[in-house]
Each structure stands twice: as structure tokens, then as C-alpha cells.
Amino acid sequence: MYLNKEQKEIISKEIEEFEKRSSAELVAVITQISSSYRFEILVLSLLLSAVVSIISLYFSIDAVKLFEIEVLSFLFFYLLINRFKKIVLLFLPKAYKYEKASFNAKQEFSNLGLRQTENRQAIMFFVSIDEKYVEIITDKEIKEKIDNSFWQNIVKEFIKDVKNKKFTQGYLKAIRACSEVLIKNFPIQKDDKNELSNEVIEL
């Protein structure tokens, strides 16, 4: 669990209060990490075991021993990094990690049915903790009225809270920051239906 019960309830209540005044549907999603990074772990393990092998050459080790060292060091690094995936993240460029997280966010937007609402006014606040990544994805009707630059300013502030592990604060600030604009552009309708859950979704 990334958020405790009380924190989830606070965020859900904020979404509920917002949706009493707007036809837009907000969804809060949070995950620990956005990819298995299997290929990256494999490559890093190979590189580290190669370094160990090169160092071993200075000790006049025979071929059989060298092969054993290569295999054992590879297995050691692979199991270690696979167990603690944050290690591999230290070696990856921020842009690469963000690309992985963004791909995951867009997949979840579709997987959670946010493209299938009747009014096409769904908004997802996506947080990937280990990548320290935040993305706000909006559906068709929201995109047409609100420029992407508006969301980017909110994301910048949200990322600061994610880096400080203040996830609840980040969600609340983001929801409040966009509330006025969304209520103005997408006011609540008499026949409004709440199609999406207000509960925080943990992946």
C-alpha cells in the first residue's frame, strides 16, 4: 500500500466534492513502478559482470576459473538488481524512465475504461513513485477546451510532492488547482451520471 486508508478517503472525498459541481470525472491512480525493466536489468548485469571479469584478468586466473567468475557474478548482479529494481533506475536517464512511465499511464487510461465514458470528460491523475513521474491524461472533450500547457503547470508542482513522498498533498493540490477551470468549462448537468469510481486506484 502506498497510501493508508485515511489518505485514500481524503483524496476520494475531494474527488467526490468536485464531481458534485462538474460533469468531468476524475480518477486518481498510483503505482510503485511502471515497468519490470527486465531488459535493462539484463544489460546492466552483463555490464557489471564484464567489469568483474576484466578486473579478474589482472590476477592471472585460468580460463575455467574466469568463466566461473563471469557466470557467478552475472547471476549475483541479476538477482540483486531484480530484487531491488531501484538500482537499475539509478543508471537510466530521466527521459527514458519518463517514457516508460508515460507508456504505462496511457495503457492504464484505456485499461480502466476512461475512454469509454458517455461524455468523454475523464481525467486521470497518474503517479509512478519510483520514476518520480506524474502525468495528467484527459479524454477528448477536455482536450478540446483545455490546453495541455495548463496541465503541465500542475504536473510540475505535483512532481515536487511526489519526490517528497507527499502523495496525498500532491493529489489534493492538483485537484484543487484545476477545479475552477473544469467547473467553469464542464458544469454539473441535471442528468449527470458518476460512471467512474472515486476511490484511489493502486496498481
Low-confidence stretches: none
Helix content: 55-70%
CATH class of the largest domain: Alpha Beta
Principal-axes shape call:
elongated
Q: What's the arrangement of strands in the largest beta sheet?
A: 3-2-1-4
Domain module count: 2
Strand elements, count? 4
**Strand count, sense and closure of the main sheet?**
4 strands, mixed
What's the pLDDT, averaged over the residues?
A: 93
Termini Cα gap? 9 Å
What CATH architecture label of the largest domain applies? Roll
Number of helices: 8
**CATH level 3 topology of the largest domain:** Diaminopimelate Epimerase, Chain A, domain 1
* Beta-strand residue percentage: 5-15%
Transmembrane segments: 41-59, 71-92
Organism: Halarcobacter anaerophilus
Keywords: Membrane, Transmembrane, Transmembrane helix
Domain TPM: 87-179
Characterize the structure shown.
The chain is α/β, with parallel strands linked by helices and 203 residues long. The chain folds into 2 domains: 5-35 and 93-202, Diaminopimelate Epimerase, Chain A, domain 1, CATH 3.10.310; 38-90. Helix content is 59%, strand content 11%. The chain has 8 helices and 4 strands. Strands 3-2-1-4 form a 4-stranded mixed β-sheet, with helices on both faces. A hairpin with a 4-residue loop joins strand 2 (122-128) and strand 3. Helix 1 packs parallel to helix 8 (167-185).
